[in-house]
Structures are given as C-alpha cells and as structure tokens.
Amino acid sequence: MEVTDKIRTAIRFASPHILAVFLFCFIPIQKAIASPTPSFNCAKATTKVEKLICGEDKLSKQEKKLGELVSEIKKNYSDGRLDSFLKGQHVWLKLRSEACVLTSDKLIPSDQTKCLQSVYDERIKELAEQKTVDASIDVDNILDADETLSPYYPQDMGSVYFLYNGDIDFKLKRTPQTCRELYTLTSGAWKYTADTIGGNSQTHAYTTCAFKIFSSQNHTNENSGTKIDFGDLTQYSNEFSCLEGFPACRDIFRTYPISFQDEEKNGHLKVQTGITNHSGENFRDYEGNPTLQIEDKKFWIAGTNYIIHNMAVGDFTNQGRQEAILQISAYPSEGTYRNNELVLAYYDETSKSIRPEIIENGSVFILKTKTMPIGYYRERIRSPKPSAQ
User: Fold this and answer.
1) pLDDT higher than 60, residue 137
2) Which of 83, 181, 190, 322 is surrounded by the fewest CB atoms within 10 Å?
3) Contacts of 50 (CB under 8 A, 6+ apart)
4) Domain identity same for 142 and 257
5) CA 245/CA 341 separation, integer angstroms
6) Residues 114-120: what's their mean pLDDT?
C-alpha cells in the first residue's frame, strides 16, 4: 500500500482527538516542505539580504527565477561578453542591498521585504528583456559605464535631488553614477524629489540611459533605405513643436504634418538659421506668424526652446529604413521646467517631412514607440489661448 493510501486510511478511522493532533502536526510540515527555495542554500545564509529572502516565500520565488534567468543568459554568452555579464551581476548584487539601505543603520525602510521585492521585479524584467538583445551588444558595459546623469552642474546640485525614501532632511543622499545604479536604486527606496528639480533630473537621467542602450542596437545594412539628413531641422515636421506642450503646438501645428520649410513656403512661418544670439522671446513676422530660429541642434519657436542633446542615426526598429534617435529637451523661455523626451525620427514620404514617434518609458532594452494621432494636436489647437494678465 502506498504511503498516501495509508494516510487516507488512518484519517478515515482515526478518533477526533487523534485526527486533531495529526492535522496540527502534519499540515505545517507539508507547508514547510512545499515552501519555495531560492537559488542558494538557505542553511548557509549569512547576510541580512539572504536571511530576508529565505524567510519570505515571494522573495524566495523571485530569487529562484532570477537565478534561472542568469543561468539561461550565461549559456548565450562567451569569453569577454560573459565576463562583462558576470561583472554586471556582481555589481547588481551589491546595489541590491544599497537600494533598500540594508547595509546602513541610519535609515531602514519600514518594509524591507516589500522594498526587496520591488528591486527583484526590476531585475527580473531587465534580464527577461536582455535575452532578446543580440549577444554581440555589450549592454552590461553600457549599464556600468560612468555617466553624468544630472542636467545641472553636478558640483552644485548633483547629490541634492536624489534621496533615500524622499527624505526631506537629506540624511542620506547620493548621485547615481551609472545607468545600473539609476535603475536599481530607483526600484528600491531611492527616489527623486517631487519638485521641478527632481522631475527634470529624473527624466533627463532616464532618457540619457535609454538613448545609450537603444542607440547601441543598430540594424543598419545595405537595404536600410535612403539616407536622410537628420541634422537639417528645417525638414522636421511641425509635430516637433508639440513636444513641449501647449503654446508652440497651438501656434505652429495646424491640421496635418508638414515640414517647417514647407510651412514657410505656405506663408505660415518665418525660418531663420544660424542664430547665435537668441533672447528667448516669442518672435513673429509682420503678419503675426511665428518665427523659427535655428542654431546647430537648437531651435526656438513660439517662446519655447528645444535642444537636441544626442542624436544617433541608423535602423533601430529593424524596419529597413533610416531613423534617428533624438534625446530632446523642450522648455519655455521663462521658468525652470524641462520636458525631456526620447524621440524616434523618420522620414515620411507622404508629408515630405521628418516626423517624430515618442519612445515609450518602462522598457530597459526593448524600443517601443507610440505615434500621437492627429486628433491629439487638433485638441491642443482648439484650446483657448491664455488670457493676458
């Protein structure tokens, strides 16, 4: 007779007292046996993180899943690429503790387990995406390379706006020095402040890292379409004026995409190039049409400033066309707010212009874009102009 059959028979004929003792003793044992195990031996757990993982089922499952992904990716890499990946994983293990401040007694998250779960969720998502990236592209080296992630002067403001748990007393503060630090620490207890400085810094840091990672995945070949001069800003469509928001979009975009150059030909825009002394004002011609001023990778229109910080040309979506990834800041001439966007630009034969697609947030290695529909711009145009103060 099988053991399970013997247990069923014993339960069937047992007295209520014996059955109660059996359920009290046996069920906890079964639960312990069924508990998930991480990728390491919990009997040898020594660090605070390891003990937390072994003491919580969800964390144990996450750690096991992470270990499986690491083993799977290691099979796809060899030589130097494997060394880079293993080094990156070692760096992440160190950051895992720092993300939840488990190496310090100064401040501890009220829920260390929840914090670690969030850090593991981020890392599992990263590795799941990393499996899809060509093994020849060393994304780990990109993640661990030193990078200036502050849009301001680091010596003045570099460590002020990135805080542990949003602590306004600045008891713990630091500056992310690499993209891996940015992704790992922000998945834990480290956050940017909710003010303008923090918001500007956060979007700048994320678009900087995304630009580096996405621009490394270039599929250009001899069939990648006609070469486009993405440095000629007069060929950009009027949709670019909507990246910052209401004012410029209202003044420039009408009912369909058209290049700035063609807008000028139609008498709706004045284009000035080679501008070296810009005052930031909302310039207009004698007929009241806005003026587009261009200097290298900067342009000004309708009281709004645009700066292309970085540009990479290639075929990044593997569609057999030439594209450009643009890291752009758009902001009003007055105030400190900056809208940092990562844009995929491509030449559209229908409108005869270079049009933008917004690169979506939330993915570390997989480039996803969204095209804002024409109705999006039309609604902005219909918005009433702000009344004079």
Assistant:
1) yes
2) 83
3) 40, 42
4) no
5) 12
6) 93
